[in-house]
Amino acid sequence: MLAPKVTVVEDDEELRAVLVRGLGEEGFAPKGVATGGELLASLAAGAPDVLVVDVGLPDADGRDLCQAIRAQGVSTPILFLSARDTLNDRITGLNAGGDDYLTKPFAFGELVARLHALLRRSAVDRVVEAGVLRLDPAAHAAVVAGRSIALTPTEFRLLAYLAANAGAAVRRRDLVNSGWPYGARVRDNTLDAYVARLRRKLQAASAAPRITTVHGVGYRLE
Predict the structure, then answer these.
(1) CATH number for the domain including 87?
(2) How many structural domains does the chain have?
(3) Domain boundary among 84, 99, 123
(4) pLDDT tens digit string along 90-123?
(5) Sign of the CA dihedral with 25 first, then 29, 35, and 36 last
(6) Domain range enclosing 49
(7) Residue 142 carries which DSSP code?
(8) 78 and 151 inside one domain
(9) Rounded alpha-carbon distances, angstroms, from residue 146 to 133, 135, 137, 174
(10) Which residue pairs, CB below 8 angstroms and at least 24 apart, start in 150-157?
(11) CA 190, 198, 155, 182: dihedral to nearest 10 degrees?
């Protein structure tokens, strides 16, 4: 699977370096910038998969920066970092267009877990295309070469995650987390049963992509 791109917007040079190094070790493709202006300039080359934004930046309030990003049509998930931990601070951050809020000091493991959760949600919240397959979550529509395929919500989440990572091997654990995002305990054979049903539905549509098994890892849409 391609490493998810994450940009850390943090003016504290030491903390920024620690986060970038740690996220790289956790399998992300991280980049660090010190100001909101640097972030906005970097978006011209394309948005990352997820953003970590400090609220107290030297050139802008992180919440104002978030609103500027959303005004540009960028829907990348944004996780705020802040030493401010009142309920009002969290509410204003989320109302500004943020997706999550983590107060300092924080455990690095929790940051990583929250970023993975944001990535899972974003993978099934956007229109995804893989060859002739098109998935539109807003309409809960799955279409292969113009032909609709009826999917349950769990099937849709699983297929959307596979399609978002088409061509890459997706780990079983990541598929379970995407298909059952609320912490449900799922047996291995439950995932296999859902994948088998998805295979049958895709096989019934001409020219549909195939789900192949990657032994010892998980599955791949190709």
Answers:
(1) 3.40.50.2300
(2) 2
(3) 123
(4) 888 888 888 899 999 999 999 999 998 888 777 6
(5) negative
(6) 5-123
(7) E
(8) no
(9) 9, 12, 16, 29
(10) 150/201, 151/198, 151/201, 154/179, 154/180, 154/194, 155/194, 155/197, 155/198, 155/201, 156/124, 157/124, 157/181
(11) 30
Enter the pTM of the model: 0.62
Per-residue confidence (pLDDT) for residue 139, from 0 to 100? 73
Two structure tokens written together for 215: 């032994």
Express each pLDDT in 11-64 by its tens digit: 999 999 999 999 999 989 999 999 999 999 988 888 888 999 999 999 989 999
Domain boundary among 123, 146, 161: 123
Secondary element (H or E) of residue 44: none
Residue with tokens 């504290």: 12
Q: In this structure, which amino acid lies at residue 76?
A: T
Other C-beta atoms closer than 10 Å to the C-beta of 1 total 15
